Amino acid sequence: MTQLEALRKIAARDGGLLRPQAVVDAARDKDSPLHGAFCWDDTEAAQRYRIIQAQALIRSFRVTVNECGKKYDAPVFVGISTDRSGGAEDNPYRFAADVAKDVDLCAVAEHDALEQLRALRNRYEYLKRLGDIWAAIDSHLDKGNG
Predict the structure, then answer these.
(1) Which of 65, 117, 120 is nearest to 96 (CA)?
(2) What is the value of pTM for the model shown?
(3) Would you say residue 116 lies in a domain?
(4) φ, ψ (nearest 5 deg) of residue 145
(5) Domain of residue 21, residue span
(6) Closest CA to 91 of 146, 41, 54, 49
(7) How far apart are CA 83 and CA 120, in angstroms?
(8) Which of 5, 32, 45, 70 has the fewest Cβ atoms surrounding its Cβ within 10 A?
(9) Shortest CA distance to 122 belongs to which of 133, 106, 110, 109?
């Protein structure tokens, strides 16, 4: 059985819903095709989870920006692709205000934003009612903007 088949089986058992806890429970069995997808060393898993918590903490800080009478919520810290070197524990964040002031860093952040927009479009492309939005994104990206 493949991992996908195992996930389908869990979802079928639970009325079409795939709950993360049900996946973990099924993966505990060493014979499960899902077993290898998890870290079973509790010390290592705890450290990995702390990294996830640290990332969530860093990303949680927001500031209200008021530019030309328009207010919006913005992150205090951002990560940009050129700073990423390895695993999540090695991916640093910068003050967003510093990135916005630096032409080169801002260009990287803009490229990253367009890549995330492309990924968002791909993730939700199956929602056909949003076709006009996807077409607008594609048109923008096709113009050499990403």
Answers:
(1) 65
(2) 0.78
(3) no
(4) -100, 20
(5) 1-38
(6) 54
(7) 22
(8) 70
(9) 133
> Is 55 within the bounds of a domain?
no
Token pair recorded at residue 58: 């860093």
Q: Hey, what are 134's tokens?
A: 């996807």
Q: Considering the domain boundaries, does residue 30 fall inside one?
A: yes
How many structural domains are present in the chain?
1
The pLDDT assigned to 85 comes to 81
Angle at the Cα of 145 from the Cα atoms of 141 and 146, rounded to 5 degrees: 70
Q: Which two tokens stand for residue 3?
A: 């991992």
Beta strand extents in the chain (DSSP E only) = 62-67, 70-75, 77-78, 94-95
Give residue-wise pLDDT tens across range 35-60: 999 999 999 999 999 999 999 999 99
Alpha carbons 78 and 80: distance in angstroms, whole number: 7
As beta bridge partners, residue 78 has: 94
Does any domain span residue 96? no
pLDDT in tens, 67-105: 888 999 999 999 999 998 876 667 899 999 999 999 999
d(CA 115, CA 36) in angstroms, rounded, equals: 30
By CB neighbour count within 10 A (0-12 exposed, 13-18 middle, 19+ buried), where does 80 fall? buried
